Amino acid sequence: MNALLTVSSIIIPLISFPYVSRILTPIGTGKVQFAVSTIAYFTMFAQLGIPTYGIRACAKVREDKEKLTRTAQELLIINLIMTVIAYALLAAAIIFVPRLRDEKILFIVVSTSILLNAIGMEWLFQSLEEYTFITIKSLIFKVIALVAMFFLIKTEGDYVLYGAYTVFATVASNILNIFYARKFIQYKPAGKYNFKQHLKPVLIFFAMACATTVYNNLDEVMLGFMKGDAEVGLYNAAVKIKMVLVGLVTSLGAVLLPRLSYYVENKQMEEFKRLCQKALNFVFLAAVPLMVYFMIFAKNSILLLSGIKFAGAVVPMQIIMPCVLLIGITNILGIQILVPQNREKVVLLSVVAGAIVDLVLNLIFIPKLGAAGAAIGTLVAEITVLIIQAVVLRDFLGTFLKNIQFGKIIGGTVAGCAASFWVLLLPLQDSMGIELKNFIILLISAILFFAVDFVILIVTKENFTVETLGQMKAKLKRK
Prior knowledge:
Layout: H1 2-47, H2 50-60, H3 65-96, H4 98-101, H5 104-110, H6 112-120, H7 122-127, H8 131-152, H9 159-171, H10 174-180, H11 196-226, H12 229-249, H13 251-254, H14 257-265, H15 269-296, H16 298-305, H17 314-320, H18 323-338, H19 344-369, H20 371-392, H21 394-401, H22 406-420, H23 434-459, H24 463-478
């Protein structure tokens, strides 16, 4: 189900962003992305680290409805109180900061995501592994938003509507969560609340969220203040593709936290290690070819998805592509291995270090290189996070990595490059149009690259590939 949700997160941007980017231009998309990145800080403050902590806390008591109800209500109350404070701070920011005041309607529209994130309690459903519900309701709202976008966004001045589309497609489905939650918890008071037990871990996760949000959104915010909306738009075009790929690579890891927390709580450490090793293997298997392919075909991807006005996004995209692999690894090491073991302080340290590195490098490179400078800062920040987590988990890593067949994974990627690189040399006529030309290049190259990569993995009998295919055959036979 999470894989299906991830695929929708790939397909829908492939449909929506080419349309929107051509209508709104880099300036319009830059305005919206600047607002989204700024509001992310207020959302982070309102959430207080609950989205991650809540999964672990609820997963541990999910077998007891009374305890689950009390835990969920305690976290929801904390979340709602912080949401009120966050809106008060946002109102003050809109009044006193000219950059925000000039686009106050856009910021008010995008800020509805703060409330929707709070009432959604998505962490509750993730802790209960209710991925069917999460996927179906998210898909319905994404499709509705997509259809509405084509009818409503017609001119360059419709960027506020694009902001509304962004919110509706991502978090509007959280309204349904309020009603579906009654299946698992009660809304009547659950007795004496103990908020104190959550404060310390929530604050640690909040600090993690602060640092993560800083270097996830700092680039766009700093670009917006230092270089303007157009540069934000260029950087956003590169990051959009990166985030789609990151979603694909982390799709398996995203569903593991409640299960791994359950294993740790019940002292099932062999199962814990087996699942972690499999998740890490999947990350390398998926991320390495994706990263390499989109570095080679970055120009074609940007021109197809965003148009010729976004040609300045090609170099930032090539610089930032290794983050697909880096984030995939740190997602497993940090969120899936350290957090279930209650070692979130290590994750906090790594993320804070990454945020500081990102801030310093942005101050150095953005004034000179713009979007490319922001990409450099993010890349080095992700490397910093990985190094710290890898050092702390060096004993674990030794066990996990020795079972991953890197030679076969790299061999498949190299073979894919050799099979597809020549497509760039095809003598396609410019008269057919830039979109069609790049579509043909990407279609032929992607089929060749990933088909050859897959064949090499099967021929060389790469462990994860063979095991997964075997499981799929077994399930088909049973059906």
